[in-house]
Specification:
Blueprint (H helix, E strand, L loop, with lengths): L10 E5 L3 H12 L3 E5 L3 H9 L17 E4 L11 H8 L4 E2 L1 H8 L4 E6 L4 H14 L4 E5 L16 E5 L2 H5 L8 E4 L7 H4 L2 H8 L13 E6 L3 H11 L4 E7 L7 E5 L2 E6 L2 E7 L10 H15 L4 H10 L8 E6 L2 E5 L6 H8 L5 E6 L1 E2 L14 E7 L3 H8 L5 E5 L1 H15 L5 E4 L3 E2 L7 H18 L2
Parallel strand pairs: 1-2, 1-3, 3-4, 5-7, 5-8, 6-7, 8-9, 9-10, 10-11, 15-20, 16-18, 16-20, 18-19
Antiparallel strand pairs: 11-12, 12-13, 14-15, 17-21
Helix pairs in contact: 5-10, 5-11, 10-11, 14-15
């Protein structure tokens, strides 16, 4: 557990007692702070009281007497801020999150931050795998895996790799990163940030300038979209930064890029081949080329050899719920891509397969399905679930056959039956919802685990 010596003897309010909030409370208490914790969920409050954490109704708290408010990442701050955040702001009480506390607690540690609308979990895990392959001590987490303050105190020369959501970055005031990876950006979480400008502004906080630094901070930026190209141009000229471009769609004179399935590094026009990406079985699809290029750019920055970079990319085992190949039953292959919570992520999955029996729906984001249109010819039938079902059916009208299924279990069974009936050897039952899970499931992980269970039942029944 992280010890935050800078917060010793302070009184800290903490709102939100999920995994990150509970880890934050424990770390702060261990560090000698007084923690006043609250969650709107009564069961959560009772659970932490049994853990010895003091519960205090923050709706009645005088924030002028407090040193800081620690918010869980899911609590709105900048756009339509939560009532607790408003009370803290009115009292000029600093509002922070667990990422801020982690970096504050480990001033000598090298931090790599990874953000982007899509691909950040895979890239974070891939960077962690690369460091392990190169025998570099590291821990990975943040928005992926253990909460930030659940890490072990880092050893000397140990690197921490953090997946950073816009929610987490929104709750940083001073946190800076030695290497900041910005993969891509497309409309997402606009209900949280108000509009695209608010969303971009939150993501840009990964590039906060460090004061009094000797070595430049490194900005690794995907240049496959207009926002990325604009950022790269800015940071190529910004004092104190070294910018490295990455691309999955174009050749670069300087940077790392994928071309026709091969990863290259270009330096002043001199091209070196790193690896054949077709050998990376857990990184299917062109979108994963960007993730591989980002990890390779981190490796280059850390002076890891091309051989070790290639070895790590091709041996990467993959993550659950991200284009996860579950099994094949007769002619049908089942793919769990529950992490695809927006249209852009679903489009990436739809580009990778043919004869798709697509399971989609849930709580829709603002981006809709326009981005998947180039891949409609890959879809044989769509099986729709959740709140977005009717709207998705209207968007798909006339393009692909649609069946409204309501729930995931029904959709899985119907998609399998249709795949079986197609007799295609390329039939793929793909869960790639293009939606958040919150209408029927607590999170995408639980949705993905449910899909795995339904698939296992099918496999067992047809064995």
């Amino acid at each position: 557990m992280i010890e935050i010596q800078s917060r010793r003897d302070q009184t800290i309010a903490l709102f939100g007692l999920g995994a990150s909030g509970l880890a934050s409370a424990r770390a702060l208490i261990k560090s000698g702070a007084t923690v006043l914790a609250w969650d709107d969920n009564k069961d959560q409050r009772e659970a932490v009281q049994r853990d010895g954490i003091v519960v205090c109704d923050l709706y009645k708290q005088d924030f002028e007497t407090l040193d800081a408010l620690v918010l869980a990442p899911g609590i709105p701050l900048t756009h339509k801020p939560h009532a607790i955040a408003q009370r803290a702001k009115a009292a000029n009480c600093p509002i922070i999150g667990d990422i801020e506390l982690l970096i504050e607690a480990c001033p000598a540690t090298q931090f790599i931050g990874v953000t982007g609308t899509n691909g950040k979990s895979t890239t974070t895990a891939l960077v962690g795998h690369l460091l392990h392959t190169a025998n570099i001590k590291s821990q990975i987490g943040g928005n992926l895996g253990p909460p930030a303050l659940g890490f072990n105190m880092p050893a000397q020369d140990e690197i921490i790799v953090l997946e950073l959501s816009s929610y987490q970055l929104d709750l940083t005031l001073k946190a800076t990163f030695d290497i900041a990876v910005f993969l891509n950006i497309s409309p997402d979480h606009l209900d949280r940030h108000g509009d695209m400008e608010g969303y971009i502004n939150a993501k840009r906080l990964i590039f906060r300038d460090r004061e009094n630094t000797v070595d430049p901070q490194v900005a690794i930026i995907g240049v496959d979209d207009d926002n990325g190209r604009t950022l790269f141009k800015e940071f190529s000229q910004r004092p104190g930064w070294r910018a490295i471009a990455i691309s999955m769609s174009e050749r670069l004179d300087d940077g790392l890029y994928a071309d026709n399935g091969t990863l290259y590094q270009a330096t002043a026009g001199n091209i070196e081949e790193i690896c054949d990406l077709s050998q990376a079985q857990s990184l299917p699809g062109t979108h994963n080329w960007q993730n591989a290029a980002a990890a390779a750019a981190v490796g280059h920055t850390l002076k890891i050899s091309h051989d070790d970079i290639a070895s790590a990319i091709t041996s990467y085992p993959g993550l659950p719920h991200r284009m996860e190949n579950l099994c094949r039953v007769y002619n049908a292959t089942f793919i769990n891509d529950s992490k695809a919570t927006n249209g852009e992520a679903a489009a990436r999955a739809l580009s990778c397969y043919e004869d798709i029996f697509w399971i989609a729906g849930g709580r829709a984001k603002d981006d809709g399905l326009a981005v998947i249109k180039p891949f409609l010819p890959n879809i044989r039938h769509a099986f729709l679930i959740g709140e977005a079902g009717p709207a998705f059916e209207a968007e798909l009208a006339g393009a692909v056959p649609v069946t409204q299924c309501g729930d995931l279990e029904t959709a899985t069974k119907k998609a399998y039956q249709a795949a079986l009936a197609s007799k295609s050897n390329r039939a793929t039952v793909l869960l790639s919802p293009a939606c958040a899970s919150f209408d029927q499931w607590k999170n995408f992980e639980i949705r993905g685990e449910a899909f795995k269970r339904f698939v296992a039942e099918i496999a067992e029944g047809d064995a």
